[in-house]
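Hi everyone,

Forwarding the result from last night's run.
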Amino acid sequence: MQKWTNDLATASRVDILLFDDFSGHCLANTVEPMRAANTLAGRELYRWRFLSLNSSRVVSSSGMEVTAHAQLADCRGDMLAVMPSYNFLRHDAPETRRALRAAAMRYRELAGLDTGPWLLAAAGLLDGRRATIHWDELERLAEAYPDIDVQRSRYVLDGNRTTCTGALAAFDLMLERIGIAHGQALRLEVAALFMSTEGSGPTPESMLARTKVVARAVGVMQAHVEEPLSIPEIARQIGRSRKDLEARMKSDLGATPAKVYRRLRLIQARKLILETDIGISEVATRTGYENPSALTRAFRVEFGTTPRALRAPTS
């Protein structure tokens, strides 16, 4: 059993309100981090449903059909995420505004994803709040709703209102929420699960850290998993003092550089154990441990199990 099993006793209930022409990319980047958090934690931290206003199915901008689990009027939960994406203005109707205002009484938090903030704004649910929206619509939102403090940010958390700019920002937002609710150790592991060091797109370290200094430090750590560097050497390579690096990493990731480095190495060890059939000795070598015993001790502390027990088939 893993170390974050002492977190919230019940799963967070997240409902995602979809409209025709929603972004499949944004939907995946919202749901997959929650699915990964459940898998890595070994229990249900999140439970989600797909909702519509009044239909049984919703069609994405790419033609993907999603069957709605329920209609919004029949539901309540912890968070309602509003996701219209493309052609969002045609969904800005009196019926939508009434439904969202009523939902605000049944959900602890409302979130607008991609162009979803516009529908929340139109319903009067962002008045006096800080918010953002897909950057193509930023100026128009500010002009149409002067009572909203519109900000050019990837996502904005303001009390029980959350807004974000699009699909990539939705992934960052969900990582942030996982870290807040269940700790940075789980956030790190969820981020690492989706990392790839190949190709273009966001760098792996930018997925793990919020600030450039910490991202650079994490990048150095990722590049030296097999032959770990000392923390002073990592600080030297990024042009910072050890004290400064420690303060920044504690603020950004909630842990010391040594703890973050150890987690990253053990996350890689866990990945090798689950996804390959190489021996435990080789896993230890590839993740910078002197021998299998040293790896096993650290692994047990971090994950509450051993490499061999994790790999053993369950009956």
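DSSP finds 14 helices and eleven strands in the chain.

Cheers,
N.
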